[in-house]
Amino acid sequence: MISTSTVVNSVVEKLRAALARGQWRRGEMLPGQRELAEQLGISRPSLREAVIVLETLGLVRSMPGKGVVVLETSVSEPHAHDAVADASLADILQLRYTLEPFIVGLVAQSITSKEIGQLRLTLMDMREALEANDSEAGMNAYIAFHEELFALTSNPIFQNVVQQTSNALKQSAQVLRNSPEHLAERLQENEAVVRAIRNKNSALASAEMRRHILNEGQRMGTALNIPDDHLGN
């Protein structure tokens, strides 16, 4: 049986190729969902997921009541890097808040004992850096921990998206290094995430990660603009 993620990934690549060869140009609307889904031989839900990925890549934009408009006909790694380079700290935290809680929730459902062991080793590196008062090593371990979480997602579509999150996290590293006094809090919050993952508690893992990122915003003096129904979760 072909997994949904494999189908969606295939559709994303087909649509990117069609955009690259000029089948639809910038400013044009894609065919309606029903028509395009029939052309591609897929379900409309799979098509909608593919469109979300294309939106994340900056290729298209969904316009309620109108359809999907083409923004770009191709995307390259330098373009993605430039987008991250232009992002503010609030943008970076908002991206992390959107993706990381969902990712850890998925990871909690499928993580192996070996993978949990690696996460705990990285947290030990952070603790050792804290005890040695080595802020540089502490921040490197913090970034490594989150990158390891990104790498554990089994959804192939996320691989492109989480790379942007990883790049954004590295971009904010200097701000993190400027507040080494908060390393102990970051360690405690990340330990709470790992405990929830180890217990296979997806909801709690997601909640702990949301709490961590909201706390990061407070520590950095940056308010996150997030939907009201997410507050307090």
Care to describe what's here?
With 233 residues, the chain is mostly helical. The chain has helices at 4-20, 33-40, 44-56, 77-85, 89-110, 113-131, 135-151, 158-171, 173-177, 183-198, 202-219, and strands spanning 60-63, 67-70. Strands 1-2 form a two-stranded antiparallel sheet. Helix 4 (77-85) packs across helix 8, helix 6 (113-131) runs antiparallel to helix 7 and helix 6 (113-131) runs antiparallel to helix 10. It is elongated, with a radius of gyration of 19 Å. Residues 77-82 have low confidence and may be disordered.
Chain-wise SSE layout:
Elements: H1 4-20, H2 33-40, H3 44-56, E1 60-63, E2 67-70, H4 77-85, H5 89-110, H6 113-131, H7 135-151, H8 158-171, H9 173-177, H10 183-198, H11 202-219
Antiparallel strand pairs: 1-2
Helix pairs in contact: 1-3, 2-3, 4-8, 5-8, 5-10, 5-11, 6-7, 6-10, 7-8, 10-11
N-to-C series of helices and strands: HHHEEHHHHHHHH
- Order the strands across the largest sheet as they lie in space: 1-2
Average pLDDT metric: 81
Structural class: mainly alpha
General form: elongated
Roughly how many Å is the radius of gyration?
Answer: 19 Å
The unreliable regions are 77-82
Largest sheet: 2 strands, antiparallel
What is the count of helical runs?
11
Strand content: under 5%
Number of DSSP E strands:
2
Distance between the termini: 36 Å
Instruction: Give the fraction of residues assigned to helices.
Output: 55-70%
In short:
The chain has 233 residues and is mainly α. The chain contains 11 helices and 2 strands.
